Amino acid sequence: MFEPTDENVDELKLAISLPDLHTTDFGHLISLDDLPSTKFSELDYDAWFLSGIGSKYIRNLTNVCETQGIELVVFDSPYHDTTAIHDVVVNLANKLFSKEMPNNIDIADIRNLNQSSDHLLAFNSKREALCFLKEQELGEVIGGVYLAHGGTDLEEYEKSNKALQNHISDYGFLCSSFLSTGIAECTILLGVRSK
Best label site of 27, 86, 128, 133, fewest CB within 10 Å? Predict the structure, then answer.
């Protein structure tokens, strides 16, 4: 009646580089201090979550990652909130590797958002995300990822989804799910296309 799942499915190969991140339970840590000595030709990842380096270095990494077939995902914050970036990256990595239900967020969702956006903005607070969305003039919000944490009930989850969707373009998308072990209030990643 049901086909057994294939246990040999390739597991996500994720690299993570953030300021002050010295260990990770999900993916492979590449210290920002080690970037100058990293042999980029040997990198073999599906995606690389990154923040905390200058735009010139990002341009160089973008070229390397394109050559290697690695999705370079650069996280930022409109408020220069490194804690929010850290929380969002760690929570997304946790969700991508967890088997927690609903298991409905995949690296393809992050890739789609990344490739459709000029800016990926991280928030660990609904209030800050909604304030940004109401006031922002950066460009068109084309999508996002929302993870409700801990004891968020279904009513609050639906209310938060609707509030976020009100600010996303008509042809945009919002991927949402739960992460019971999430750090901070919530995880929100917004993709913005510049004007």
Answer: 128
Structure-token match 């049901």, residue found: 2
- Is it the case that residue 57 has pLDDT exceeding 90? no
Encoded tokens for 141:
């919000």
Task: Check whether the bond before 78 is cis (ω within 30° of 0).
Answer: no
Backbone angles phi, psi at 108, to 5 degrees: -65, -35
Residues 160-164 have a mean pLDDT of: 96
- Tell which residue, 105, 49, 93, has the closest CA to residue 181: 93
Q: What angle do CA 6, 11, 14 make, to 5 degrees?
A: 165
Q: What is the pLDDT of residues 68-120, one digit of tens each?
A: 899 999 999 999 999 999 999 999 999 999 988 988 999 999 999 999 999 99
- Is the CB of residue 26 less than 8 Å from the CB of residue 99? no
Give the distance between the most distant pair of CA atoms in the chain: 55
Q: How many CA atoms lie within 13 A of 164 on its CB side?
A: 30
